Amino acid sequence: MSCRILDKQLKTSTESSVAIADAFFPSTSPWLAAFVVILLLSMFLVLAAIYKIRNNNKEITRAQNARKQIEQDIDELKRKLDEQKRRFEKENEDAEKRIENVRNELKFRKARSNAVNITLDQKCKHPNLCISDDKRRVKSSDKKETALKAMVVATEGFPDKKHYWEVEVGNQSQWELGVVSENVRNMIMNNMGISPPVNGLFSLQYSQGKYILTGREDVSDCKQCSVVGVLLDVESSELSFYSVEEMSPLGSVVLEFTGKLYPFFSPDSSGKWLGVRPVKPQTYDPLPQGEKEINK
Q1: What confidence score (pLDDT) does residue 244 get?
Q2: Which segments of the chain are extended strands (E)?
Q3: Number of neighbouring beta carbons within 10 Å of residue 169
């Protein structure tokens, strides 16, 4: 670096120079441009990565939301399917009950078509029982008598075929209905004060709110009825009982016997009448074709 001073009056000039080393004025580094480029590229890559991460997060969020929506839709479909399944099962159960009711009514009407007249035998009864003048009703004359031990046997005996009769039991707390073999009937007639033997007696007993069939446990899910229908099928060796009000079966007993079978009746010790209800023989009318298909 130099400096010159001019004197116009004297017309002279003075010049001085100062040398400064290159170290005080370094030249531009060749790596600076590369550094700037790399820095810019790095910033671009960082920004691009941030942008990509944000987009990925959005995609993940959308995928999670879509998954939640699909799960909700699946749960909703399952709920609807469960509702439809329950509704179908209920409809199916109701249909089965209706079909069962139709079948029970059909069996009851078939049984009733075999109605017969029954009269009570004054000569074959327990001494503590009273029989009405029309020989259709019986009651206990001794309220101290132990229930279900005093019985009266019918005059009519049946060696074959089917026979049906109905018994009004009312609201008696205990009673027993059924048939006895000819041997048991003769035993009762010869010694009317004895209790009937177990063998040769087939019955339905009602006691303490339960129905009990001979040789079996309690009959389940049967409410108390006031009129009981009895079907004796000698050819099939079966004795069946029905609730007349409900037109539904109460149960049945397999018969093992020889000779004739005689209906018997055993009231409780309350002194209330237990009687045979007259039933007019009915002609069995088959069900329409549609209901026949149901019963197949």
Answers
A1: 92
A2: 2-7, 12-17, 120-125, 129-131, 137-140, 152-154, 162-168, 174-181, 201-207, 210-213, 218-219, 227-233, 238-243, 248-254, 261-266, 274-277
A3: 23
Tell me which amino acid residue 12 is.
Answer: T
What is the pLDDT at residue 155?
94
CA angle 150, 139, 246 (to 5 degrees): 100
Nearest Cα neighbor of 201 from 178, 218, 217 is: 178
- Tokens 């939640």, located at residue: 68
DSSP element (H, E) containing 89: helix 31-112
Q: Give pLDDT < 50 ranges for the chain.
A: 146-147, 284-296
Does the pTM surpass 0.85? The reply is no
Q: CB within 8 A of 229, min separation 6: which ones?
A: 108, 111, 112, 164, 165, 166, 167, 241, 242, 243, 244
